[in-house]
Amino acid sequence: DRGSVQNTPKSYDVEYLMPVSIGTPSQQLNLDLDTGSSDLWVFSTLLKESMVNGQTLYDPNASTTADKMEGYTWKITYGDQSYSSGDVYIDTVTIGDLTVSTQAVEAAKEVSEEFTADSDNDGLVGLGFGIINTAKPYKQKTFFEKAMPGLDSPVFTADLKAGAPGRYNFGYIDDGAYSGNITYVPVNSTDGFWRWVSPGFQVGSTGSFNSTRIHGIADTGTTLLLLPDGVCEAFYSQIASAEYEPSQGGYTFECDDSTIPDFYFGTGNGQMIRIPGSYLSYSKTDTGSSRCFGGMQSDSGVGFTIWGDIALKAAFVVFDQGNEQLGWAEK
Ligand SMILES: N#Cc1c(N)n[nH]c1N1CCCC1
Questions:
Q1: Of 1, 2, 183, 280, which has the maximum CB count within 10 A?
Q2: Alpha-carbon Rg of the chain, whole angstroms?
């Protein structure tokens, strides 16, 4: 079996949403595929109205295939301190023509204001590893873990694009979606993340390669690229107007600064992925400001590197759960 679904970026590529069908008759919600977490949760009719702001609500009572898991609850808090919680149902879930008939659907009864404010986002599909699913008394498998045994190949791929729709594929690798070779690197899933080691980085096409192992996670649910301080310093030292602005919470530079270099990260076997300098200018710091917030910021607040959308949209990425490895290719 296999599946394929289009993803669509919101403005500034802050997140990527995909249509997901839940229940019978099917209810279509737009969800955020997040490889940095492992709960499939949705805005639902169980929420207080004050917590809803335009989102589409999953109504388990309107689904003839929904079964409430009595006594089960869930509560998730993300690194940015946003959170959600609620009850657990089993229902049928289809993503890109791939159906899991008994998927744990976590129906929200409470969401933090960040989620309420994001009216386009109806919830998340966590495709990290099930070991960090938050359902109690027993954790639930991710959509991919439930689908994997029936797939042609135990992989899903992420093709995120800058300012344009891309694709998530399940169960196969589209050889037309990337150029050159796919370099595979081992994944350590102990913490439930797609954690891997990059052999190093290079700033600019003429820069030297810095052989320094960078431990981090591939995370579709994080917008920016969060790297060790030393790497950030090496990059921003090449941008004339760049400075660290605590009041803005990170590195900024003049939006019209033409010296923004490309950033390359190693994936192994001598292969590197090139992130164009244009991807590394994120957005104006304030309306009317001449300064822009960098797409690369320090990971010091997190404790490990996060290869978020800024990096992922420069590559074709294979999340190979069957072999616990990540595949990286240019495109
Ligand atoms: N913080 C954070 C975070 C992350 N590291 N991966 N996904 C995240 N979120 C998904 C929805 C809100 C935050």
A1: 280
A2: 20
Task: Give mean pLDDT, residues 235-249.
Answer: 97
| DSSP element (H, E) containing 310 | helix 309-312
Cβ 183 vs Cβ 328: under 8 Å: yes
* Rounded distance from Cα 121 to ligand 1 centre (Å): 13
Stated length of the chain: 331
Contact (Cβ atoms closer than 8 angstroms) between residue 157 and residue 319: yes
CB atoms within 10 A of CB 240: 11
Ligand 1 neighbours, Cβ below 6 Å, are: 34, 36-37, 78-80, 82, 124, 219, 221-222, 306
Q: What is the pTM of this model?
A: 0.98
Closest by CA to 156, choosing from 222, 98, 78, 91, is 98
Greatest Cα pair distance in the chain: 61
Residue of 38, 80, 225 with the most ligand 1 atoms within 8 Å of its CB, for mutation: 80
Catalytic residue among 13, 32, 34, 159, which?
A: 34
Among residues 36, 80, 37, which one has the least CA distance to residue 297?
80
Does position 52 have pLDDT exceeding 90, yes or no? yes
Residues 7/16, Cβ–Cβ less than 8 Å: yes
pLDDT (mean) for 176-187: 98
Query: Which residue's CA is the nearest one to ligand 1's atom 11?
Result: 221
What is the model's pLDDT at position 258?
87
What is the Cα–Cα distance from 58 to 60, expressed in whole angstroms?
6
Closest CA to 132 of 34, 35, 37: 37
- Active-site residue, 34 included: yes
What is the pLDDT at residue 170? 99
Instruction: Look up residue 200 and give its amino acid.
Output: G
Per-residue pLDDT tens over the stretch 186-220: 999 999 999 999 999 999 999 999 999 999 999 99
Interface ipTM above 0.95: no
- pLDDT confidence band for 268 (50 / 70 / 90): very high
CB atoms within 10 A of CB 210: 16
pLDDT of residue 49: 98
